[in-house]
Structures are given as structure tokens and as C-alpha cells.
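Long-time lurker, finally posting.

We've been working with ABC alpha-glucoside transporter, inner membrane subunit AglF (Streptomyces ambofaciens) and I want a structural starting point before designing mutants. I don't trust myself to interpret raw outputs, so I'm hoping someone here can both generate the C-alpha cells and explain anything notable. Sequence follows.
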Amino acid sequence: MTSVTAAGSSPGPAAPKSRKSVTGTRRTVAVLFLLPALVLLGALVVYPIGYSLIRSFYDQSGDSFAGFDNYQALFTDDGIRTALKNNIIWVVFAPTVATALGLIFAVLTERVRWGTAFKLVVFMPMAISMLAAGIIFRLVYDQDPDKGVANAVWVGVHDTFAESSAFPKAHPGRQSPLEPAGGGAFVTREPVRAGEAVVLPLVGVAPDLMPDGAKKAAPGRPEDGKITGTTWQDFTRGKGVGKLNGVDAAELGYAGMKIEAVKDGEVVASTTAAGDGTFSLPAAADGAQLRLPADNFKEPYNGLNWLGPSLVTPAIIGSYVWMWAGFAMVLIAAGLAGVPRELLEAARVDGATEWQVFRRVTVPLLAPVLAVVAVTLMINVLKVFDLVFIIAPGSSQDDANVLALELYRKGFASDQPGIASAIAVFLLLLVIPVMWFNVRRLRREVRR
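Top reply, 14 upvotes:
Generated this for you. Predicted structure of ABC alpha-glucoside transporter, inner membrane subunit AglF:
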């Protein structure tokens, strides 16, 4: 038996379909699987944000409604204003420098055989926690050149071009023929004469701190037509041992001490003491006063105070760049691998130099990747806390302060949870536009 459907008649109602997700899984089942994650998300993200927002409108005790007083403190409190200023410096410089270095490393290592090994070394700091990196750079920036690598290098370079003194603490002793001449120099009380042996005793330098070239001091021998003498450490270990203003066998000469003969304020002759402290000046020094210039006694260069008020923020940013330049390099190198080589070769065939190819072809093609890297680092530096807290000493922490650190200090050290909550909300408001820009860019890239 057959049934015929009349032409033009409408079909019957379709059977109801079960609602499924795009993967074919029933939505009810999908929701059940996502429920634990949603609960954790609400407990660890949504609830803290909501509670911080509400708490930011209450006073220190949390009992009285304070309105916008806590938010007003963000722009009137000196500590918070300093933190905000430093955050602006961080956002401007840290992502820019890290991204630029990552771009340079990615481009330069693209053609070398050992590029992979170099990238591995540059990326390796990413495996170190912020806490460990902070401890490392606290030691790197130590003021003592014998401990801090940064000052050891800086002092080494400085001393290469400007030799430091070996006798910073030397000065005349009792009944010395020398007297202060101003500016840290010393001069003989009386003019000297040719044929005389002059004594220039000094004290103040421990024998074990004398330079390696120092030898046992020898008394100067008079010479006709010349002025001779000795400059030495007039100190002998042992109570009552040695003769005042006299060269003793156990005393050391000031090797390398500069000596000038001065007449009417002008230097007419100069020399340098030998290892045993002896020196000789020509007849032109007859009737002059001998001067030991201040260069002999200047304090040795001790490098820069990297963690002082003026340099602490750039120093910490340097440690951040050390950690995150590898991250930028890896992402940019991945983007560079997708750049069409025929475009680069076409530019070279047209006569473009490597710099022109880099500036006008490579960088524009990498612009989306560079933007993603820079924006990601901006979000990261807005929340920076560990490095500043660990690296900056207590004396400079106020100068290196950032919003995340100030949040911690207000919430725990100062017991001002209302202001701390306001800072947290303010930080969230700062991060949201940057995140929105990043998400929008990523969606635009997916649509392409």
C-alpha cells in the first residue's frame, strides 16, 4: 500500500532536536564539566574583585561608609603619587626596551649557525622566579665593587682611564715638615735648596694596605745641583719602635707618589717617587716649595650608587629587561619565521640596504607581533611587585615604589585596607583598557 503526498502540501512538524554544543556534546553535560572551573573562577577572581570594590568605599575599620575618600587619597598621598609616577616610567620604558632588544636579537640571530644556542641563553632567565632574580640583582647592584658585578665593571672601566690613588688616608704626622695647602694637597713649610736631602714623611696608611710596588724606604742622598729626598710611611709596628721623621728599616716608601716643585704658584718641576720612596728634582726646583698634590690622596672611585634614590628605578627596570627580553625575542622570532622571504629578497634586488629592508619591510610586517608583545609586557609591568620589593633597599624603597608595592604596604604595613582596595581597583581599571586592546587585536588577526 502506497501513500501519495499531495503536491504543495506542507510537511509535518519536525521532531525536536536535543540542544548540543558546537563540539556535539550536550550543553547540560558541558555545563557540568565546566562547573568546578566556574566555581573556582568565581571564588578566586569574581568574589575578590567584588569585595575589593565594595571595601574601597569604607574606612579603615570597615564599619563606616567613606565614599570616594579612599580614591581621593590616590592623588593626594605622596607615596601613592610617587608609585603612580614610577608606574608610568615602567610602562613607557620597560616594554619598549624589552621589545626592542627582542627584535634585535631575533633579527641578528636568524642567519647565524649558533643562533639557537644564543636564543636559549637569552631566554634562560625566564626560568628564574622574580624572587630569585631580585636576590641576584640585589647582589649585582651592591655598592662594594668587591661584591657587586655592576660596580666592579664600572670601576674597572673608570680606573682604566682615571687611575685612582693608593694613599687616600695619608696625611702628615706630628712635627712633620709638611702642612695642608688646601684642596687636599700638602706642601713643605719651607723652600728647599739644591744639594739637600728632603724628608716628606706621612702617616695614615696601614702597612698591609700599601701598594704592591712599595719597597723598604731608603734615605735620600744629597746630590749637587739636584733636590733629592724620600717620601715614606713614617710608621713602624710596635710601641716605641722607630724614629719620628726618620727613615727606619721596617718602613715602606710611597711608591708612585707625585711630587711637584712650586714657585709663585706655578709648577716648575715634578717627579714621581720610586718604589723605595726616593725622588729627585732638577736644579729648577731650587728655592721652591715641594707639594704633594691632592691627586695622591683622593678617595678611590667606588662606582655608582645603583640602588640610591636617583638610579634605583632604572636599575630595577634593567633587571626586568634581563628577564623578559628572551620572552620578546622568542615571540618575535616566531613571527619573523612567517615573514615571506620573497618580499625581503625583492627589496634587496631593488637595491635596498639591510637597514632599509629592516626598517621598511621587516618591522612593518612584524608590527602585529610587536604590538602583542609590547601590550603583554605593559600588562605585566603594571603589576610588578617582586623585583621592586626585593631589590630596592629600605632607604630607597620609597623612591622605587610602584602601585602594587604600595598596595601591599597600605594593606599590611600601614593597616589601611580601604586605600589598599582602592589601589587594587585603580590597577584593575588601568589594566582593562590594555587587555581590551590586546583581545581586540587578536580577534582581528583571527578574522584575517
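Before you design anything, note these points.
Confidence is low (pLDDT under 50) at residues 1-8.
The beta strands are 178-182, 185-188, 197-202, 227-233, 258-263, 266-272, 278-281, 289-292.
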